UniProtKB/TrEMBL annotation:
Record domain Quinolinate phosphoribosyl transferase N-terminal: where: 41-125
A GO cellular component entry from the record: cytoplasm
Pfam families listed in its UniProt record: QRPTase_C (PF01729), QRPTase_N (PF02749)
Family: Belongs to the NadC/ModD family.
Segments traversing the membrane: none
Name by which UniProt lists this protein: Probable nicotinate-nucleotide pyrophosphorylase [carboxylating]
Organism listed in the record: Lamprobacter modestohalophilus
């Protein structure tokens, strides 16, 4: 899991820690191009083979930029000679009408890669933009806004990177890097204490967290010495009482039914983390466009 310090306003240095390895980005883009281009771009065959052109990518929305590495990789795989000059970076706020990047290269390859490259940039910028809205709503409070596993299939690493670009934080990446004990696990184990004991035997270095649905269950979890507790669908009075009962013995995460209009008041109860599935589940793509800015050059 990430560090306890909220990302809040990510720098290029901090973002590099969350960017997937180059080999993974390359494989992701290869799959995306195979999906769109297949055996070849039929429409591009209408264009001169050796024509060179310039293009620009603009935003029509107020947004947080994310997806530069995937955008670049699209054109790198189609034609390594395509030149891209960026005028903004991941994690940076951009305004309607702002120039994001300029491209120069083979006309066919520019137009073949346009949709795949923009798909990455629009979706990931949309995720980052939503994350920034949530981060801004709790500015000044010592709380982290966390994503969840409610990501678009096949895009988890990309979306979780975008969440960090927007100033929020990552929860576990998947089922493999942390243990989160939920109601069915507790039922199968027989009790909260038994579930936590079993998790500790298996966890190794992986963090252990347990979901509770009442203050009584919270007390059981605290007595068992668990390091993190997820408070599922607690009301505001219950959240405040949970913070009092815990008194710093465990890290508390509020979850379930978290909406933007309730986010600040939930954060003010004193919980350490708030997980929001909507960061990655409810995404509106940023409106971007790529336009040729010169006639094809010989």
């Amino acid at each position: 899991m990430p560090t306890v310090v909220p990302v809040s306003d990510p720098s290029a240095a901090s973002l590099s820690r969350y960017l997937p390895p180059p080999a993974l980005i390359e494989a992701q883009v290869r799959d995306a191009l195979a999906e769109d281009v297949g055996d070849g771009d039929l429409t591009a065959q209408l264009l001169p083979v050796d024509a060179v052109a310039r293009a620009e990518v603009m935003t029509r929305d107020d947004a947080v930029l994310c997806g530069v590495a995937w955008f670049d990789q699209v054109f790198r795989q189609l034609d390594p000679l395509v030149e891209i000059e960026w005028h903004a970076r991941d994690g940076e706020r951009v305004l309607p009408g702002q120039l994001l990047c300029s491209l120069r290269g083979n006309l066919r390859q520019l137009l073949t890669g346009e949709r795949t490259a923009l798909n990455y940039l629009q979706l990931l910028s949309g995720t980052a933009t939503r994350a920034r809205r949530y981060a801004d709503m709790v500015a000044g409070l010592p709380v982290r806004i966390l994503d969840t596993r409610k990501t678009l299939p096949g895009l988890r690493r990309q979306q979780k990177y975008a969440v960090v670009c927007g100033g929020c934080d990552n929860h576990r990446m998947g089922l493999f890097d942390a243990i989160l004990i939920k109601e069915n696990h507790i039922s199968a184990a027989g009790s909260i204490r038994a579930a936590i004991a079993a998790a500790r035997r298996l966890a190794g270095d992986a963090p252990v967290e347990i979901e509770v649905e009442s203050l009584d269950e919270l007390s059981e979890a605290l007595d068992a010495g668990v390091e993190r507790v997820l408070l599922d669908n607690f009301g505001l009075p219950e959240l405040r009482r949970a913070v009092e009962l815990t008194a710093g013995r465990s890290r508390l995460e509020a979850s379930g039914g978290i909406t933007r209009d309730r986010l600040r008041v939930i954060a003010e109860t004193g919980v350490d983390d708030i997980s929001v599935g909507g960061l990655t589940k409810h995404v509106e793509a940023v409106d971007l466009s790529m336009r040729l800015r010169s006639a094809p050059l010989a």
